[in-house]
Amino acid sequence: MTQRQSRSGIPPHPRKPPIVGELETLSKLPVRTRGESLSALEHLAVLNGIRYGLTPARIAKQHGFSKTTVQRIKNRIYQNPLSIFELRVISHSGKGMYQCVFCGEAKARLSVAQRHVLAHFFAHHIAQNIDLGDIPEVF
Ligand SMILES: [Zn+2]
């Protein structure tokens, strides 16, 4: 997949972001059975396509998922943005290091990292105003 500028305008991090390794792992897995529900890794691949602004049809074709499934995931994140955090989109790599799996950028605070991740999917002013609720600050 060619690297495209994400809609958030966040420039790609110079180091290889975790998602690259995750997608490599996914590409090496055996071909999925039709009708099987998506794994966490496959969900992550869908989110990665959405953040690049790809259509559900294109994401579905790229990974062999059903278009309906991709559309359902997309609808879900726009209805409930915090559902993004049900997946491992932030990796906690030591004290005060919360790394975005999509671009590799690390933040010192979880809430800042969460806003950063949301900005991959929503316009900046929307991402800044989404209620993060009671998500604990420390994992
Ligand atoms: Zn990021």
How confident overall, as mean pLDDT?
A: 86
Structural class label: mainly alpha
Query: Total number of helical segments?
Result: 6
The percent of residues in helical segments reads 40-55%
For the termini, the CA-CA separation is: 32 Å
Overall geometric form: globular
Order of helices and strands: HHHHEEEHH
Q: Can you put this structure into words, describing what you see?
A:
The chain is mainly alpha-helical and 139 residues long. The protein has one domain (18-27, 39-129). The protein is built from 6 helices and 3 strands, in the order H-H-H-H-E-E-E-H-H. The protein has helices at residues 18-28, 40-51, 56-63, 67-79, 110-118, 124-129; strands at 90-92, 98-100, 106-107. Strand 2 and strand 3 (106-107) form a beta hairpin. Helix 1 (18-28) crosses helix 2 (40-51). The radius of gyration is 15 Å and the shape is globular. The model has no long low-confidence stretch (mean pLDDT 86). The protein binds zinc ion.
Features:
single chain; 139 residues; mainly alpha; 6 helices; binds zinc ion
Short description:
The protein has 139 residues and is mainly alpha-helical. The protein is built from 6 helices and 3 strands.
Topology:
Blueprint (H helix, E strand, L loop, with lengths): L17 H11 L11 H12 L4 H8 L3 H13 L10 E3 L5 E3 L5 E2 L2 H9 L5 H6 L10
Antiparallel strand pairs: 1-2, 2-3
Helix pairs in contact: 1-2, 2-3, 3-4
The protein binds zinc ion (ZN).
